[in-house]
Design a protein that fits this description.
By secondary structure, the protein is mainly α. It has 18 helices and no strands. It has one domain. Helix 9 runs antiparallel to helix 10, helix 12 runs antiparallel to helix 13 and helix 13 packs across helix 14. The radius of gyration is 23 Å and the shape is globular.
């Protein structure tokens, strides 16, 4: 080898300590301030006529939704009406959350708008347009409730899902910058998700782990691992008053028994496919931050899809209530499809041809709204075109829809039988010492979190 040739510097296998300074981008710029309320209003106008007529049935194992329903009851709002309000609010929040998550990851409004619209799309050709033409009878409203429960989740699960995009946003910001305000917001959001739904609590841990993993590969892995663990510990500590040792053990055993019973069915096909997908995903991602959005969304979509396919094709459930994962799959699959469409737009160089970079803030906001309307019309047209074929594929005694619907009805009946009444909160742990210990731990972790914030503020001053 020529001695004058320099040997390339080793990369550090993605775990090097070098990282470019994090450039913080405002979460709500002028365009986002216009788009967010527009999307929320659009979701309300589109779905409220149907949701306002649905009678919900649900039993709760975590206290957030019952607490919110009790708060609304002080205003004279009945329980079923309160559940309708919480459901439509969750839909509005989750739609805005998908937009802001993709916007924060990609720094692009049009891709984020497209993701939010695709996320809202599934019920439109099946129920919304039918309702607009002729209204829905009671049996169709029951079908609409089951469909919305599958696509978005029941009340508590949906509220937890709606907060997940925001938790992802502030976790990523905290891992990059270590700003204490981001830590506070991440911990509070994670705690609310834990208190909204036990199912979404486990989903949240999986999602945060994958999101953090992508950040580890971008550099400063050891520092970011410590930050990630701090978020998890503080979040669990704040909800210790409800997630007592007994509650945690019972919940973990539920997942452990289901997984231990059926994990052998992952081999060999799904295990091999999973390894192949993981390998190509890591090779594709490498240390390129701009590929982080598609890597996160695709990996989460593949994980949820693999678990659902295992349940449907092999009739083996790796986790309890597998049908509830459709809500998470719908969210991340919408993001994947939007990012794929954005890649096509980039290849065609449409934005460059339109000169969008030279537009004023008002023109960009107006263009974003026009893009949203046109995109939604095109998506609805495509959905109406292909929905009859999808219905033929899913319908029938052995179809996906039939199996999922039966599972939803069975879970609902079991929960109602356990509770004895609708909208009841079931407390799994009634041991006095565990409840007292949980309250004390929650106060300790809350004090520690406040201490971190106060100390950081003193250092800044």
């Amino acid at each position: 080898m020529d001695p004058q040739q320099e040997v390339p510097k080793r990369s550090g296998l993605w775990f090097g300590e070098s990282l470019k300074e994090h450039q913080d981008v405002r979460l709500l710029d002028k365009t986002a301030l216009v788009v967010c309320p527009t999307l929320a209003l659009f979701a309300f106008m589109l779905f409220w006529p149907i949701i306002s007529q649905i009678n919900f049935e649900e039993v709760f194992f975590t206290p957030l939704v019952p607490f919110l329903m009790a708060a609304l009851s002080l205003l004279g709002i009945l329980k079923n009406e309160a559940m309708r309000i919480l459901f439509i609010v969750s839909l509005m929040i989750s739609t805005v959350g998908v937009y802001l998550l993709v916007r924060d990851l990609t720094k692009r409004h049009l891709t984020a708008i497209l993701a939010a619209l695709i996320y809202m799309l599934p019920p439109v050709p099946v129920f919304v347009l039918t309702y607009a033409r002729q209204g829905l009878y009671q049996v169709e409203l029951e079908a609409a409730r089951n469909f919305l429960t599958i696509v978005y989740g029941d009340g508590g699960q949906f509220l937890g899902l709606a907060l997940i995009p925001f938790a992802m946003i502030f976790l990523l910001r905290y891992l990059k910058s270590a700003a204490k305000i981001d830590l506070l917001l991440t911990v509070l959001l994670c705690s609310l998700i834990f208190l909204a739904s036990r199912s979404q609590a486990f989903n949240l841990l999986l999602i945060l782990a994958i999101v953090s993993l992508t950040e580890f590969f971008l550099g400063m892995a050891r520092v970011k691992i410590r930050r990630f663990l701090l978020v998890v510990v503080l979040s669990l500590g704040l909800v210790a008053f409800w997630y007592t040792p007994g509650f945690l053990i019972e919940s973990l055993l539920l997942y452990k028994n289901q997984l231990a019973l059926n994990i052998r069915f992952l081999f060999p096909l799904f295990f091999i496919l999973g390894l192949i997908v993981m390998f190509f995903a890591f090779v594709f991602f490498a240390k390129r931050a701009r590929r982080q959005p598609i890597f996160v969304a695709l990996l989460l979509a593949v994980v949820y899809l693999a678990i659902i396919l295992e349940w449907f094709l092999e009739r083996q459930a790796l986790v309890p209530h597998t049908h509830r994962l459709f809500a998470n799959l719908n969210m991340f699959l919408a993001i994947v499809l939007a990012l794929a469409a954005a890649g096509i737009f980039d290849k065609l160089r449409l934005l460059e041809k339109l000169g969008v970079a030279r537009w004023s803030a008002f023109a960009k906001s107006l263009g974003a709204i026009v893009f949203a309307i046109v995109s939604f019309v095109i998506l609805v047209f495509l959905a109406l075109t292909f929905s009859p074929y999808v219905v033929l594929l899913l319908a029938g005694s052995g179809g996906v829809w039939t199996k999922i619907s039966l599972q939803v009805l069975a879970d609902r009946q079991d929960a109602q039988a356990l509770a004895g009444e609708n909208f009841k909160l079931i407390r799994l742990e009634t041991n006095a010492w565990q409840m007292s210990l949980g309250v004390i731990l929650s106060l300790v972790f809350l004090s520690y979190l406040l201490l971190l914030l106060i100390r950081d503020r003193e250092v800044e001053e």
